[in-house]
Amino acid sequence: MKIGIYGYGNLGRGVEKAFAKNPDMELTGIFTRRDPAAVQTETGAPVYAAAQAEEFTGIIDVMILCGGSATDLPEMTPALARQFSVVDSFDTHARIPEHFDRVDREAFRTGHTALISGGWDPGLFSLARLYMNAALPDGRDYTFWGRGVSQGHSDAIRRIPGVKDARQYTVPIAEAVEQVRAGKQPELTAREKHLRECFVVAEEGADRDRIERTIREMPNYFADYDTTVTFVTEEELKRDHSALPHGGEVIRSGKTSAENGHVMSFSLKLDSNPEFTGSVLLACARAVGRMHARGVFGCHTLFDVAPADLSILSREELRGRLL
Amino acid sequence: MKIGIYGYGNLGRGVEKAFAKNPDMELTGIFTRRDPAAVQTETGAPVYAAAQAEEFTGIIDVMILCGGSATDLPEMTPALARQFSVVDSFDTHARIPEHFDRVDREAFRTGHTALISGGWDPGLFSLARLYMNAALPDGRDYTFWGRGVSQGHSDAIRRIPGVKDARQYTVPIAEAVEQVRAGKQPELTAREKHLRECFVVAEEGADRDRIERTIREMPNYFADYDTTVTFVTEEELKRDHSALPHGGEVIRSGKTSAENGHVMSFSLKLDSNPEFTGSVLLACARAVGRMHARGVFGCHTLFDVAPADLSILSREELRGRLL
Questions:
Q1: E-assigned strands of B224-297?
Q2: Three-state DSSP class for B112?
Q3: Which of residues 86 through 115 in chain B touch A, CB cutoff 8 A?
Q4: Which tens digit of pLDDT belongs to each residue from B49-71?
Q5: Which of A35, A77, B45, B96 is deepest in the core (most CB within 10 A)?
Q6: Looking at the complex, does the CB of residue A318 fall below 8 Å from at least one CB of chain B?
Q7: Spatial distance between the Cα atoms of B319 and A97, rounded to a whole number of angstroms
Q8: Cβ A301–B319 below 8 Å, yes or no?
Q9: Chain B residues within 8 A of A131 when measuring between CB atoms
């Protein structure tokens, strides 16, 4: 199956690396809005200008879109779905229904197949929530994230005047996780579920007290959480905080009768968020390619994909080995 | 959707209880090989003789088959698939391909839809293995079971002369689980993964040493494990060991590059194995009914089922709430 990567930041690099572990998938090209000649790839894959993508219509089976959810994907996915079958990792939860409808219209009209919101959350965590809800309808879900780097929160700190660079870790509160794992169903506020650790490089002469206060009081991002702010040097940030670990846990507990309760959990511990997400997106592309070959057009999410379509193994092999 | 339960032991009772939590599903009848008049149900559902089932062809949408895998289901599932769409929980892993083919032939020929090997293992654990393998192709799976009652091992003890009753718990070895969760990929023997705790009621005057030795040396069941045997009275067995808890954990760890490793885990902690399994089977029946209505005939496993088909929620609701 011939695959293109459209957008070449951390996530695009993660997808690129995943080809080494998926011998049935072939990377045809990487498409970038930068100057292709200036881009150094991880594996020596060919790089093209984004505008050249249309020359690959009919050649590339599935294009994996590695743009951001805030401004890139809302335009990019419907536009590219007119020329290619596509996969994206759109993660603005509130806008998923609207994004789905726009992509569905374009893909369906042009006979393409699309999968949006692939990855792990949304993605594998969403699947865990669905299966858990179906298996145990009377219960309650909890999702904990981290310990891991939140790109959005790191960016929010970087926008504060006087901040040169920053890294924010989302940290689940162990006591809350333990309560939920034990089958209790506590009411938890945002503050009781996660805390936020910020590592900040201040510009020379900047007012550190003001920066710290601005972070702690920032609505939505930090005001509702216990937040620690640690100032570090640029060297320290690079040395100690340049990895992009992440993870988390989905837990559902509930009852099948007055007497009997059950706890289900799905957890991830990831050294590299973009590499793992890239690997999941490549599996999604496999499913999209197979669905397209069967004439299943329009937009989908992982909720609509038969699990077997994600695997390199045949259905017979899967039944024999993994069932 | 109208559902029948065929076979009324612990699992059948578990399915019956699940209807209270699934308001879109209606229990039409329970079919038993015993005298229907002598059967007391959990919820007052009507009971019929197994032979009467054929009168419900065209009325019952999906029949859930609650027989044993050793002798019941290999005959029951293909036979019933000629008259109904069916769900079973066939769990003899080595014979799944053969069972699948027989059920597929009958279901396809008669325009019915079947799902075999529903439940949690095989079932939800199989799904966890598939998704984890697709997301992380270069890695290694581990499955731990317990702490929980193994019906098969309990039965094996009961067949020993001089044994009146018995209960066997499969117990995962915490040290092994911790190693695997930490992302190590140890080679583990059967003995290093699980131990087996047996609680045995001996008949009066029986040779306890012989019973204990027979258990410990039983090939396949106990010889390869560290096994404890505790003799208890009939009253103690009833008081302390009449619940049917179970659970376990599927863990996969692997790499997306030379530098970056990841650990995925799916775990269950169940107060009642038959109630939870019954609840999963009812969700499987929902999917089978929907697939049948779309004209998707023949045999399937959870690997072939779009997750959304298991849920009471519509695809729009799922995208809005759980993605």
A1: 226-231, 246-255, 261-270
A2: coil
A3: 93, 96-97, 100
A4: 999 999 999 999 999 999 999 89
A5: A77
A6: yes
A7: 7
A8: yes
A9: 124, 127, 307, 310
The Cα of A137 is separated from the nearest Cα of chain B by a number of Å equal to 6
Q: Would you give the DSSP letter of residue B322?
A: T
Q: Do A263 and B269 touch (CB under 8 A)?
A: yes
B-proximal residues of A, 137-166, CB under 8 Å: 137-138
User: How far apart are the C-alpha atoms of B139 and B263, rounded to whole Å?
Assistant: 9
**Residue B69: helix, strand or coil by DSSP?**
coil
Interchain proximity B311–A134, CB inside 8 Å: yes
pTM beyond 0.80, yes or no: yes
Tokens 């201040």 label which residue?
A: A202
Q: Are residues A9 and A76 part of one domain?
A: yes
The number of folded domains in chain B is 2
Residues in chain A: 323
Does B228 lie at the interface with A, CB-CB under 8 angstroms?
A: no
CATH value at residue B96: 3.40.50.720
What ipTM was reported for this prediction?
0.97
Decide if A244 contacts A272 (C-beta within 8 A): yes
3 state DSSP class of A13: helix
Q: A276, B256: Cβ pair inside 8 Å?
A: yes
Residues B66 and B166 in one domain: no
Q: How distant, in Å, are the alpha carbons of B48, B68, B82, B86, B278 from that of B8?
A: 11, 11, 21, 16, 12
For position A179, which CATH number holds? 3.30.360.10
Give per-residue pLDDT as tens, A67-86.
999 899 999 999 999 999 99
Cα dist from A233 to A163, A237, A238, B320, whole Å: 11, 6, 9, 42
A118 touches chain B (CB under 8 A): no
Strand pairing class (B139-145; B113-115): unpaired
Residue B74, phi-psi category: left (phi > 0), alpha (psi -120 to 50), beta (remainder): alpha
- What letter represents residue B316's amino acid? E
Question: Is A21 within 8 Å of B256 when comparing Cβ atoms?
Answer: yes
What residues make up the domain containing A237?
139-255
pLDDT lower than 50: segments of chain B: none
Give the per-residue pLDDT at B254: 98
Beta bridge partners of B226: B195
Q: Are residues B116 and B154 in the same domain?
A: no
Structure tokens at B5: 């339960």
| Chain A residues touching residue B183 (CB < 8 angstroms) | 269
SS3 A170: strand
